[in-house]
Design a protein that fits this description.
Length: 373
């Protein structure tokens, strides 16, 4: 029952049991069954239940249906947000003509505002109220049709409370993996964190000391270059940096490279990921990214994604036999970058007169100091 989600009758043949289970299968599950499931059991003894692939193979973006459909109470916050968006659009509708609209996308570095604009004109207000009432009246909060079978729901509940397994992503979008928590930690330590030439272990006191020093440096940077920052960028960096001081560190995790060869002990290599979301330097990093993006996108070697690379290659017309197409892979690239040499080259490029003439939106001293932080 635990392994396959049903209890077969030993007095029946396997075919008879299969027919019973097929007959008990809900129609929605039979008609909308996923066919391209991607899940990899990396436990040494394959200790995960066989039906795990039918659940986690759906992917991490699969959303189980809640017990109840959306009710009027559930939509209160969304309805309020919708009304505010309508008021904002109406309030600023005539702020500029088509010729005056900004040519570039607005900066994402801004603190969300709680300002409530005035109500729109009577006709728009009446139409908006009628639409909102119609939406609210259509929301009954009925019992929802599940999109998981009972055995899948039971398995999901057991995984949510289990501390024995973890389910990391595989590299290159190859789906979820299942592995023992202890094995996951051992792989991360062996492949990355215990490699002394790449990583350094800090005590808790040392880590907090560095975090507080980074906070002070960012505050000093804000004070020094306040006149060059927009009000939105200054407010965003100041608020987010102070908010993140409570928990200033990033998060480290690994993804398994299933497309690579196993080592001699039968272990897959892993890709380390250091997420700095909500870290002490995150807000400043977003500002640096906005400053560098226009420069980055103008480089001859830039292409947006693999699809765009395919389009570029398909336009090439190569004749003869004097051409070669090759690829290469960097091992531990980021931890092996010479930071001082990199900053020297960046400084030369960003201070170059031609670069400054082409991209006048940044101040070299200000940007380079932020990058160093």
């Amino acid at each position: 029952m635990e392994a396959y989600g049903f209890d077969p009758d030993p007095s029946f043949t396997a075919r008879h049991n299969a027919m019973i289970q097929l007959g008990n299968l809900p129609l929605w599950s039979y008609r909308s069954k996923a066919t391209n499931l991607a899940f990899h059991d990396l436990t040494k003894d394959r200790s995960l239940p066989p039906t795990t692939s039918c659940l986690l193979g759906l992917g991490s973006k699969f959303i189980p249906t809640p017990l109840k459909t959306t009710s009027k109470k559930d939509m209160e916050q969304n309805i309020s947000r919708f009304y505010r968006d309508i008021c904002l659009a109406a309030h600023f509708a005539h702020s500029w003509s088509d010729e005056d609209k900004p040519q570039k996308l607005p900066s994402k570095l801004r603190v969300a505002s709680n300002w409530q604009p005035p109500a729109p004109n009577q006709e728009l207000y009446s139409r908006t109220m009628s639409f909102m009432r119609a939406v609210e009246n259509a929301l009954r909060g009925r019992t929802a049709m599940p999109n998981l079978l009972p055995q899948q729901q039971a398995l999901l509940s057991s995984f949510q409370t289990s501390t024995e397994y973890v389910f990391p992503h595989a590299d290159k979008g190859l789906g979820l993996c299942g592995i023992l928590y202890e094995s996951y930690c051992q792989d991360a330590l062996r492949n990355h964190l215990l490699v002394e030439k790449d990583y350094r272990r800090l005590s808790k006191e040392e880590a907090w000391s560095l975090a507080n020093a980074a906070h002070k440096s960012i505050m000093d940077w804000l004070h020094s270059y306040r006149r060059l920052l927009s009000d939105d960028a200054y407010s965003y960096i100041y608020k987010k940096t102070n908010d993140n001081l409570e928990s200033p560190f990033g998060f480290f995790y690994t993804m398994y490279k299933l497309h690579k060869q196993k080592d001699k002990d039968g272990n897959y290599p892993t890709r380390p990921v250091c997420s700095d979301c909500a870290s002490i330097t995150h807000a400043l990093g977003k500002w640096v990214d906005e400053q560098l993006q226009p420069i980055f996108r103008s480089q001859r070697t830039y292409f947006k994604n693999s699809y765009e690379l395919k389009l570029l290659l398909s336009k090439m017309r190569l004749t003869g036999r004097r051409y070669s197409f090759f690829k290469y892979d960097a091992v531990a690239m980021y931890v092996n970058i010479n930071t001082d040499a990199c900053l020297d080259e960046l400084s030369k490029y960003l201070r170059d007169a031609n670069t400054r003439a082409k991209f006048p939106h940044y101040d070299p001293d200000m940007l380079l100091e932020a990058i160093e932080l």
